[in-house]
Amino acid sequence: MMEAKQAAPDRLSSLPAELQDEILVRLDLRDAVRTSALSRTWRDLWKSLSVISLSFPFGTHPSVVDSVLLRYIGPRVSLFRICVDDACADRIDDWLIALSRYRVESIDMCGTLRSLGNFNLHSSIFSLGDLVSLLLKNCRIPPLPVGFPGFPALQKLVLAYLCVDFNEIHSILSMFTMLRSCHNLQNLKIESRHVSYESFEADWEFLNALWTDGMCANLQIVRMIDIISLPNETSFMKLILSKATLLHTLYVGAHPYDFDDHIIDMLKCKRASAQARVQFEVKILILMYLCKLFYCTSESGLYFIEKLDPLRKDNQHKTFAEVFYGPLRL
């Protein structure tokens, strides 16, 4: 009877632990978990990796995220990326609390809620002091904790479509605290929610008192979208113009009926940067405003609009300046 052939050595299982770890950290999460099927040695090895990247595709069931965060016992998360939809909105708090146990280097969270609007961000986000990159979209920022030191290691910050109430004093203070904590910030975008009143007026003197040396030292581009020239909006733009030494573009997207004394006053203010320019984008409805302004008859006004055809669908998102003269810079 022939002797049974000796089983071939399991070279994967005999690899040094450091090399196994190096292999796994180069895989995405799904492939790293699948290596558990290779052998008993590799089973659940991903749970104790020195660093793991957690990137969950859109539509991932919340239970999958729960399971991964519950089972991973390693020290470091290089990336946590997820699209927050209605199915997982109520799990965000628990996930951020769970992440606070690790050294998290990068967070990328984008809200895609249909029924709830922007999702609420948990205050535990401020405990992630090792963050190098932070991207937040469509969320509500909680009040900054007292004594918040900022993110000392942060190199990249992307904030898009956040809910910060610029009409409340505590929100204004929180925003300035955040700006002071982002020393390398180069591009800032603020979109108005069309609030028709201000419960607290933050004039230039008040905002100037909040400014500190070195604040927005690298700021180059500021975009103010859909403003309606409320005092707080124009005061903030005046402050940026007068303080940001590297600023080269202040982009103002406004409504045609909002070009009033506040805007004129802002344009006259002193600019800290010699290269700073203000670029206006006015919605296409300014044509009707101009017709009224110059007392055009309804017939001539309609003819004027039809002839230039600015209200065609392919022009809906173009500006008055783009359709007729090119960008308007002041």
TrEMBL record:
This is F-box/FBD/LRR-repeat protein. PROSITE patterns: FBOX. Residues 9-45 form the F-box domain. Gene3D superfamilies: 1.20.1280.50, Ribonuclease Inhibitor (3.80.10.10). InterPro entries: F-box-like_dom_sf, F-box_dom, LRR_dom_sf, LRR_FXL15/At3g58940/PEG3-like. It comes from Zea mays. It comes from the Eukaryota. Pfam families: F-box, LRR_At5g56370.
